[in-house]
Task: structure prediction
Amino acid sequence: MKKIVNDPTNIVDEMLKGMIVSHSELIQRVPETGVIQRKAEKTGKVAVISGGGSGHEPAHAGFVGEGMLSAAVCGEVFTSPTPDQILEAIKVAEEGAGVFLVIKNYSGDIMNFEMAQELAEMEGIEVASVVVDDDVAVEDSLYTQGKRGVAGTLFVHKILGYAAQQGQSIAEIKELADKLVPNIKSIGLALTGVTTPGSKQPSFILGDDEIEYGVGIHGEPGYRREKLQSSRDLAEELLTKLTDEFGEKEEKNFAIMVNGLGGTPLMEQYVFTNDVYTLMKEQNLTIDYYKIGNLMTSLEMQGLSLTMLYLEDDFYIEALQAPVTTISW
Amino acid sequence: MNVETGIRWMELFNEKVQAEKDYLTQLDTPIGDSDHGNNMSRGMTHVIEAIETQKPDSLEELLKLITTNLLSKVGGASGPLYGSAFMGMLKAQKEDNIPWSAVIKSGLESIQKRGKAEAFDKTMIDVWIPVVEALENNQLTDAVIDQAVESTKPLKAKKGRASYVGERSIGHIDPGAYSSGLLFHAMLEAEAE
Result:
């Protein structure tokens, strides 16, 4: 796989340098760390922090700014950041009202964020957290640690970021988060595997005419491999999986996110969005909010994910529609 | 184990990790996210640099230095797990006249506390458990280690990222188990020198 790179071991550092020089009005980097912090004036509100491995750009640093994240912690490619880095982010973001961590359900992220939370609490900082597990591709059972956290995490960033901006307390944000996460479901599909910088082979190899349903955001395999079909057929498979998870709902209003995984043009994402719209309309499901684009990517993977947020609470849509000052939302 | 042997242990572990970096990543590819080789390589490079610059003169100092470097440089799941392992060993080492098997056992307990895995979940502890047992009986050999590593192959992953692929994890050696195997092979070699 061809890459535009100098030394693969410095790729995250060099990417962050590039982000900082081009967006210095919005963000700054905590020296010697992978922590990106917003420049906005501190107002004594709850700080919402997220992060994870790099390779998902613009997540997570692209969503740092007023109305969304106070800071993002960027780990190595597809690798959770370390506890000391997360602690650093907590310390610089803290404004006196506590810090809220948004964690994706991957074991590395859970362990590192948990350790950072313990360290921060030892230093007297109030910290609360939520684990996002929106990916329905992997069945929750006795034998797994539950579902992965993928693109739906961005809805959590947006809604909690708005709640923090409105001055909600850390306890209120925790309650909101716990209610919100079960209303978010995602599922992805891949047309290609993904090659991490410096590695010699892709995570998996698909034939020219093959796709894989249910992949994660680190090139992890999914649940089924098939011949490539039309966008409408792909949309039908993903949508069916998601609506099955929601079951019968009285209100049928949703927000959706069509997320490109890095190597899929916006043209194809819009084709797919149109199919989702048509299929949902046929089922009397209403879409009140759309978010389309490369938001939670998996390096250069061709493919996309579909996220549905069930709009159980009017506050969700109010929060989604509120303006923010970030690089990429 | 004294500090000289401990340093030699880390040097040998580092050599093995660097030599098998690509293989570790290859093991992680079908069932995880292909980062185990790079992460362990990065962590051990920092451990060796820290040993060279800080020249620890007690086993306690050495274990402390290994712990902090693995925790702050590895990331992913391996960082907290290996970091916790050496933190547990450090705690046990502070007790007087504690046998080495009990030190390693304390490392195992720390891994389990952090990762919440049980035996046969297809994780690194499937190597640590038989190693502790063998150490307690004074019967640890390279063959015991190899067999423990190999035993993860037919298991279905229940913890860690491999658990997300369920049945597909069967037939692959767990990468954390393999790197733990390297750690204990290096320990035997250092002790034999």
